[in-house]
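Note to self: the last two entries modelled the partners one at a time, which told us nothing about the interface. This time every component goes in together.
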Amino acid sequence: MKLIILKENLNKGLNIVGRVAGKNLTLPILNNILIEVKKNFLNISSTDLELGIKYWTLVKTEKEGSITVPAKILMSFINLLPDKKINIEAKNQDLFIQCEENQTKIKGQSPEEFPIIPIIEENEIIEISAPVLCEGLSRVVDFSILNQARPEISGVYFNFQKEGLVLTTTDSFRLAEKRITLIKNPTKNISFILPQKSTRELVNIFSEYQGNIKLRVSPNQVLFEYLMTETSHPEIQIISRLIDGEYPDYQSIIPKKYEVELIIEKDQLINQIKTASIFSGKSNEIKVKTDSKKGGIEILSQNPELGENKGFLPAKILQGANKEMEIAFNYKFLIDGLNNIKSKNTFIGLNGEEGPAVIKPDKDTTYVYVVMPIKSS
Amino acid sequence: MKLIILKENLNKGLNIVGRVAGKNLTLPILNNILIEVKKNFLNISSTDLELGIKYWTLVKTEKEGSITVPAKILMSFINLLPDKKINIEAKNQDLFIQCEENQTKIKGQSPEEFPIIPIIEENEIIEISAPVLCEGLSRVVDFSILNQARPEISGVYFNFQKEGLVLTTTDSFRLAEKRITLIKNPTKNISFILPQKSTRELVNIFSEYQGNIKLRVSPNQVLFEYLMTETSHPEIQIISRLIDGEYPDYQSIIPKKYEVELIIEKDQLINQIKTASIFSGKSNEIKVKTDSKKGGIEILSQNPELGENKGFLPAKILQGANKEMEIAFNYKFLIDGLNNIKSKNTFIGLNGEEGPAVIKPDKDTTYVYVVMPIKSS
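The predicted structure of the combined assembly is written out below.
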């Protein structure tokens, strides 16, 4: 294997595939990156057996071949080189790198030891805009939770319908749902549960990309593919294992009506909740109280050891102006939901001390966040 | 105690005194801030018994008095309030705070329980520009080290001479010395050792200030004082315990001549050392080799498990162009020194495999960094 590549191009690829390599103690080969040169493409890949990432770039090939080397060493090293041409050559399982006045040898391993990253043969192709997918996922991914007893909620539920894609997560205390439109819809309903870690990597990697992502789904795996604009050759492939199981039928949990509905300025509300949280103690409990006389809500918190706090915020009450209620919430769950509202004002729907509350943008109907109150013991 | 204060003014003070409060488990009162109102001044203070910080600001006093409350609660709370007037009142060891629509009670403690921060009566006053002191300290403070066997090197050595102030630190592997000029010199030589932690707080607090700091030194303590521009009343007082003991007579360690002297571009050198460090392994060892033929130095590193690296850098050789030497260094020590060189080029003085090497700016003579090679075993 022998090639010439610009530092910038190699670095870009390493930042993409290097993310999953280098964290495995039981199977050291997974700390490596596989480097392959074929025709005029360099392909680098990494895998943690659940998630595989492949990246291609055009290079000047002098000799085809392959090798694997430790990801961390290669990444730190390439990152420090000047922005120039790099000469790379594999000889006897050593990788020789020469860049200007710098000469390096990195000890590698035979590429045969590297696990094979599976290929998905499925024909059905779905197409999504990368920025739309990343924005949608980033608003739900935090609410999935590693749950050994209920592995099906440990990931993001992708539900492709004819009208578009519905993304859902829940940790059983709150639930987030985001609807996005597709560039190319599937011909039939397709759904799967993507592990949280794979989802995070997907968002991290594609958040720099502006084009479209193609999806192929097999019973156990999914492939997210991004093509080079010039050649239509793949540039990035992300292949992830899917989580087994049925996603819970959650639609009945999302309230269709509310006892009290109000519109409130979001940043003020977040600030007031944070202020109250200082006195919430270990339970994280704060109270939301509707105040029909003053036309708004009060946020309250109290802790016998620390002290107490009370703040009022004006709100536009759309529904239930005459209903007084005081509901206990985990303040973190409220802030998590509000942080995903991108508009100035937020809609809040309340259903009493035990019913699910809803946070959603005041106008955009594609996002909804449901949160359960803390039940009084 | 009852007063009105602008949020901004209170917040500024809390950010200064809050730094030392809130980390003590055995003496919980040290987690508190002492708040006192006298005439038209609010004074807030904190201490960890080694270091005390006091801050004053003008307020509208309605009633004099004092209280102590937990620093962390008060700071988090005030920080979240809007930039408005705050009404503060102490009643029955509770602190009541009201700001716009927000009402809070913080449980406090009696001020009698708070330790007294000592006063320094010494008359001799030294005066230093705050930015000059902070810049000088920041270039030496990192090289002092907590050392139970040799407590005297656990701090920064302040040596006031008639020509100015010499600041020195060492961890016995390297030594840094910075000379600065004073606004008002002492009438006699004064020296003391300031604990590393106090030095760091001093730099953090005064790095925002442009005026002069007044110093008073007693046998066991030092006071750094900053006055309000309008009233000449103290704004900040930092009182620190000093470290007992004689600072080592280090002047003989700083080489006066070198076998090889060279001038080299600093950023390139740092980058080349970092590149080599990837292959340095656990010993952190890299080698610096003079190359008279090519007119520069080679940086080398080698590790049987990882690989090896070699890079050449051109240099202007002032002295010893015909002397070939290869010296092993801990790469971290070299980078630490080079990071304190502010000029584009750095002077490097080498004294063979076992002699102390020197890093200093190519023109400024007020800073010197001495580093010992790794001795071959």
